[in-house]
Structures are given as C-alpha cells and as structure tokens.
Design goal:
The complex is a heterodimer of chains A (about 140) and B (about 60). By secondary structure, chain A is mainly α. Helix content of chain A is about 65%, strand content about 0%. Chain A has six helices and no strands. The chains are: A mainly alpha (about 140), B mainly alpha (about 60). The interface of A and B includes residues 41, 57 and 114 of A.
Chain lengths: ~140, ~60
C-alpha cells in the first residue's frame, strides 16, 4: 500500500499583506497591479475591463438586480449582480449617474448585458492575479 | 449616449479579444507564455465561434 507523503502546509499569508491590494484592485480595475509596480500588466487589465464595460453600456446592456425565486432565477440574477458589482467603481458610477436600461429583446442589448457582466468577471481574474503577486506565488 | 450597433460576429470577436488578453496576462508567468496563451485562447474562441456558426447554419438548412 502506497503511503501518502504528507508535506507540511505553508502558513497562510497574513491578510495585512494582501487585503488592501485586493480591495483596491476590486474598486479600481488594474490598480492592484499598479500598486505592486506591474504597470504594463495593470494598464492592459484596466484597459480591457474599462473598454469592455463601456462597450456594454454603449450597447445598452442592462444591469442585474438581485432576485430570488427558483434556483435558476437566483443563480442568474444574483450571479449577474455579483458579476456587475465586481467591476467596482465603474458599476457604482454607472448606477449613481442614473443608468437604468430595462432588459429588452435584441441581440445588441443581450451582448451589452454580457459585456457588463464579463467586465466584472475579468476584474475578478485581475484581483486573483494581484493576490498571487502580493503573497509571492507569482512574479 | 450613442447606441452602438454591432453584429453577432463583431460583438463575439470583441468579447474573445478582451477575454483572451486578460486570460493570457493572469494565467502565465513569463511574457512569452502570456503572449502564446493569449493567442491560443483567441484562436480557440474564433474556432469555436465559426464552428458553432457553421453547425447552426447547417442544422437549420
């Protein structure tokens, strides 16, 4: 019987090391990389999230509001809302400036809605990357 | 605010482009690997896009 090799787990990095970076990376896309002197990568990430979000607005995509009900409704609306919220300041500015596009039929609106959620999800990837840089898992 | 009118293909290509750039940057460790993986993702998106497009076209003939 093969014995399992148990390697000692590395201690979890202190939140003081990465919490402020993650918070800033969420609020302002790309800023987690700027803060850690990864300017080029930060600029590319910020550019992609920003352009995708603005394209979503120009296509008149709708923003999700959290709704619960059956499982599918909950997953779609709460998930979509979290995706929108992940864009940070872009989402808050959009809501504060009064953008309220109803969900209407049409492929352009539909793509717009997906672009708005997609921008948030790309920012989540950027936040994870900033976290890995902060804790030393990545250069 | 002006409304942007894009076709399915244009919107999907733009989506593929931005997603590929971010996936390339966030998943690999060297610049060369990032570029290669970004291009690979973009090519995969396009292949899937055209593949599914043709499949739907032929399925509805």
């Amino acid at each position: 019987m093969a014995e399992k090799l148990q390697q000692p787990k590395a201690p979890a990095p202190s939140p003081a090391k990465w919490l402020h970076i993650i918070a800033l990376a969420w609020l302002v896309p790309g800023s987690g990389h700027f803060l850690q002197k990864r300017t080029m990568r930060g600029a590319l990430l910020a550019g992609c999230v920003l352009v995708m979000f603005v394209l979503g607005l120009l296509m008149r995509g709708s923003l999700f509001e959290p709704q619960t009900g059956d499982l599918l409704t909950t997953v779609i609306y709460v998930g979509g809302f979290l995706g929108n919220l992940s864009s940070g300041i872009l989402y808050f500015l959009t809501v504060w400036l009064g953008y309220a596009q109803p969900d209407v039929a049409g492929h352009v609106h539909d793509y717009g809605t997906k672009f708005l959620v997609g921008a948030g999800l790309l920012n989540v990837l950027a936040m994870v990357d900033a976290f890995e840089i902060a804790v030393g898992k990545k250069d | 605010m002006p409304k942007l009118g894009l076709s399915h293909l244009e919107a999907a290509i733009l989506f593929a482009l931005f997603t590929s750039v971010v996936m390339g940057i966030t998943t690999k460790k060297t610049d060369r690997e990032r570029l290669r993986y970004g291009l690979y993702c973009f090519a995969s998106f396009l292949a899937t896009l055209f593949g599914l497009g043709w499949l739907m076209y032929l399925g509805h003939r």
